[in-house]
Amino acid sequence: MCGAQPGGPDTSAVKPGETTIQGQVTRDGEPVTGYVRLLDSTGEFTAEVPTSATGQFRFYAAEGTWTLRALVPGGTADRKVVARKGGLAEISIAV
Q1: Secondary structure of residue 72 in the 3-state scheme
Q2: Cα dist. 63→8, 14, 21, 67, 71 in Å?
Q3: Is there a contact between 67 and 56 (Cβ–Cβ < 8 Å)?
Q4: pLDDT tens for each residue of 48-90
Q5: 26-38 average pLDDT score
Q6: Residue 58: which residues within 8 A CB-CB, separation 6 or more?
Q7: Which residues contact 30 (CB under 8 A, 6 or more apart)?
């Protein structure tokens, strides 16, 4: 369900037809490394990926409403996202 890989995702290679949620975690406009969790519509943990050195992350998920939780040194932040079947949701999370 997720695209976890060491060093974060290769954000240049979105899979056609896949429901994709991707984005970047920042603080004061600068990329932040850490982790991003994918929580389902009830708040249950579904997956977690490390961010890349540039704060980028990616999940392949089912369509629906999700919460992204950024976990970085010194802070956390949540963002809601609605993923559409076969679509790409680009999300920025400021911590």
Answers
A1: strand
A2: 22, 16, 10, 12, 23
A3: no
A4: 999 999 999 999 999 999 999 999 999 999 999 999 999 999 9
A5: 97
A6: 3, 9, 11, 14, 20, 21, 22, 49
A7: none
